[in-house]
TrEMBL record:
PANTHER family: 4-HYDROXY-4-METHYL-2-OXOGLUTARATE ALDOLASE (PTHR33254:SF28), 4-HYDROXY-4-METHYL-2-OXOGLUTARATE ALDOLASE 3-RELATED (PTHR33254). It comes from Friedmanniomyces simplex. It comes from the Eukaryota. Substrate binds at G98, G99, L100, M101, R120. Mg(2+) binds at D121. This is 4-hydroxy-4-methyl-2-oxoglutarate aldolase. Keywords: Magnesium, Metal-binding. InterPro entries: RraA/RraA-like, RraA/RraA-like_sf. The keyword Magnesium applies.
Length: 228
């Protein structure tokens, strides 16, 4: 199954469903990328969900002279159907993504943007109804302190608590629960595992509403969940 078909099939499930499957496959933290939350079209509210292959952009401190300097603007080359993942230097005060970037991303057919850093122009993203996830919000453009050094290369999550790398083509899933990264090589396995676990949870929920204990219902229904 190709990436487009897998992404389409995953739209039926939540980031939590995906994380459960990744946990069974021994992916640390179920692929969860901590600290990245939904800011647009609403703040941690509503049915918004993005699913698609990662198209990565890495910013570096402006004075990193030994880093490459790609020509052109990264936003003009993003492919349709992708999730733009932007990595800013850790603890950056300035934002690295604004309203004009979402305007172009929407025109190009991107399904959303995830920023390991700050965004700005929040109302502009919301007016576009374009999904944006980020660590925080800011006011100031990036040029003062940072620049793009790499496009569509592996980037490392800015976190002191987890060691996660996002590779181009990894499938990113984001909703109001958070953001999960599915390694490209595991995508079909994840999709294979999810349906039985979702079905089991639905049966358990139905039992609980009828007064049955969680322990008893889990013992019955989770025994049938598909194993890796």
């Amino acid at each position: 199954m190709n990436t487009k078909a897998i992404s389409k099939a995953l739209e039926a499930y939540t980031s939590c469903d995906v994380a459960d499957a990744l946990s069974k496959l021994k992916v640390p933290h179920g692929g969860f990328l901590a600290g990245l939350t939904m800011w647009s079209p609403k703040r941690q509210e509503g049915p918004t969900k993005i699913v698609g292959p990662a198209h990565t952009v890495r910013y570096v401190r402006k004075n990193y002279e030994n880093e490459p300097q790609p020509s052109g603007h990264y936003i003009d080359s993003i492919p349709s159907g992708c999730v733009v993942f932007i990595s800013a230097p850790a603890r950056s005060i300035n934002a690295c993504y604004g309203g004009l970037m979402s305007t172009r991303a929407l025109y190009s057919g991107a399904v959303g943007t995830i920023i390991d850093g700050r965004l700005r122009d929040l109302q502009e993203h919301r007016d576009l109804d374009f999904p944006v996830f980020a660590r925080d919000v800011g006011t100031t453009a990036p040029a003062e302190i940072m620049r793009v050094a790499a496009i569509n290369e592996p980037v490392r999550l800015n976190s002191e608590d987890q060691d996660a790398v996002i590779h181009p083509g990894d499938i990113l899933v984001g909703d109001m629960n958070g953001v999960v990264c599915i390694p490209q090589a595991l995508a079909e396995k994840v999709l294979d595992l999810i349906p039985s676990q979702v079905e089991a949870d639905e049966k358990i929920a139905a039992d609980i509403k009828k007064g049955r204990s969680v322990a008893e219902s889990m013992k019955e229904h989770r025994a049938d969940v598909k194993k890796p």
